[in-house]
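[Automated response] Your request has been received and processed.

Submitted sequence:
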Amino acid sequence: MIELFNYETDYTKNAYNLDGDIYLDIETTGLKKYSDYAWVIGVGEIKSDKIFVTQIFISSQTDERESLLALNKILKDKSRIITFNGNIFDIPFLKARAKFYGIELSFPENAYDLYDVVRTNNRYLMIKRINLKTVEKFLNIERNDPLAGKDTMRLYKTVVETGYTFLKKTLLNHNYLDVKNLPYVMNINQVINDTKNIDSNFKTENYYILNDKLIAEIASQKKLPKISIFDKEYSIVGENTRLKISVNLESKIIDGKKVYYFSDSKKVVKIDFIFYPILKEKICKIIKTIKI
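Generated structure:
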């Protein structure tokens, strides 16, 4: 027998929350999709300035089929599913479990994975260890939850064996926050855009080091004339909506690591990785100096 838990909380949509979105997170008894099962499936929707979260909880694998059928009803007519690492774990796991019972889950084709968004843009964000909690902390999203994901497997077994209500509430709260916070985490897209923006006209598209030069590829919102500027510390070439800025670097070995720094200011720009805020500061200063 499944248990359903429903919650609602006030929420104001951001530009990245769309009609027809569904947010999903699961907690499982293990990582093996052909033998373990999801003991709670959490799904969220935004309606009328509120986040509605439903949790489908089971205390035995004998109720798994019923929980998957309940999920399928919720998935009906949704246009996009949003998860954190769900394209790698949650969705394939649930599909495999549903297939075991001959069920085809109606997941939307548009599967938006926030973990992938953060991972592919982390050179701009510079989050040290990417998981949902670290991203929430980066965005100043509140979470009152002592559990890590690995704790839930152990505590679930204790809840099933003992029936301790307070432990069950703690477990459900962990999953509830995972789901409820996903709409807020969508704001990471705005942070990425703001971080890439040099100013209102220019945006960083790529950067790298080549032959002791820091190369920044910049997109312009306005059409530019043909530009060729060669200074002793930097060069700029480009036209139309593209610029390439090259800044001279110097380097030395410190504690066995090659450290790069700007020739003029001596500011360190790379040790293990390029420090994007330092790069952005430099590029911004160059663009202001030449008054493009």
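Summary generated for your ticket: Residues 196 and 204 are 5 Å apart (CA to CA). DSSP finds ten helices and eleven strands in the chain.
If you did not submit this request, please reply to this message.
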